[in-house]
């Protein structure tokens, strides 16, 4: 049983009481400057860059931005728009991202777990993209002549054919593929990039844990030698049991850095109209180290608080820095979207004796921050759904929203002048013209039989304990 503490119920409020009193005049200036960013507020975005951040608490972002610790999120709040987003249980990355990328819930897209059991030999594999029964926003946008790029998103392996680039989740050392829950070799059965040659083009950007300097770790933790040994030399073990948090952190930091580097290279080199990538560092750090951030709530040793208590704050500051870097390099007339498919916060769980005890938990309350072309400065929504991401992206690109989508356009976050110039329209379904016969590259078809056959049943999807 998971319960949110009273402080988490404030997430749905559209006002930002701890931020706005301190930035009243700055907000007005930000609105004016945002309105003057582009010559024509009715123009379509030159590029939309979507940065996902898993297990990212909008409430903590609000608090830290108000304290001046997240200056770039403060800028998004002042010059851009925000809405809380709610997701459906179970909060598994592949399910969450498939909902976000299709605009449809799990009952429709059919991805409901992180792993499948392959009927041929009983091994556990990441849920393949072939399990999904509907198109993603990348395929829809690409079918309309726009170039797209998807980098490291859960639920995207094997890489599918798009008008652009796909770097599937699992193309480099990763927490989900190194975990003991996973006993399946992705490389042996399917492509991790599309086009296939892209793997060679981005290889120089892939870096493993052995290349992570200790000084980079020191920003987040004060580790002892045993903990550094766990980070560099010990197997990850079980993610479910949290066997090796130091290595989980290191794997995820390096993977996130790679995602960002690849997404930026593709964005700058090929100028795709839509770019989407994901960061998982909060999800790797919070389940273990949130305890040390709140000593009054959780009973943690004083020395551990000193060494580990600033880790979560530093992770949020690191994410903020990545947002700032994107704001600097995005081309004129672009739109930046930061989306948290899930949140994190104080809650409770049952201990081995069945007693309810305080514990930090993953929550269904994520959020979306939008900034730039087509976005109304100061826009807020009382509530939204994770499935709203795809309809909103389609509206920003002046493309029809699927009438069979569960999500809706977040109109209150869009500039009224933009919406007036590009009225939101619908089509019955984008899936009617979906060419599933050519969904995967020909070169991948002989190598994806295991994944495809397991998905046809449909697959048994579960998280291995």
Written overview of the protein:
- It is a single chain.
- This protein has 465 residues and is of the alpha/beta class.
- The protein has one domain (14-462): Alkaline Phosphatase, subunit A (3-Layer(aba) Sandwich), CATH 3.40.720.
- Helices cover 34% and strands 16% of the residues.
- The chain has 17 helices and 16 strands.
- The protein has helices at 24-35, 58-66, 71-79, 93-102, 106-109, 137-143, 175-178, 198-201, 214-218, 225-233, 245-270, 281-293, 302-308, 311-329, 389-396, 416-421, 449-455, and strands spanning 48-53, 81-86, 115-117, 124-126, 148-151, 164-167, 193-194, 274-279, 335-340, 343-350, 356-363, 365-372, 384-385, 401-402, 426-427, 460-462.
- The strands form 4 sheets. It has a 9-stranded mixed β-sheet, with helices on both faces. A 3-stranded antiparallel β-sheet has the order 4-3-16, with helices on one face.
- Helix 12 runs antiparallel to helix 14 (311-329).
- The longest helix has 26 residues, at 245-270.
- It is globular and about 60 Å long.
- It starts with 23 loop residues before the first helix and ends with a strand.
- The model is unreliable at 1-38 and 444-465 (pLDDT under 50).
CATH architecture: 3-Layer(aba) Sandwich
Mean pLDDT over the full residue set:
87
How many individual helices?
17
Unreliable residue runs = 1-38, 444-465
Number of spatially distinct domains: 1
Class of secondary structure makeup? alpha/beta
Summarize the structure.
With 465 residues, this protein is an alpha/beta fold. 34% of the residues lie in helices and 16% in strands. The chain is built from 17 helices and 16 strands.
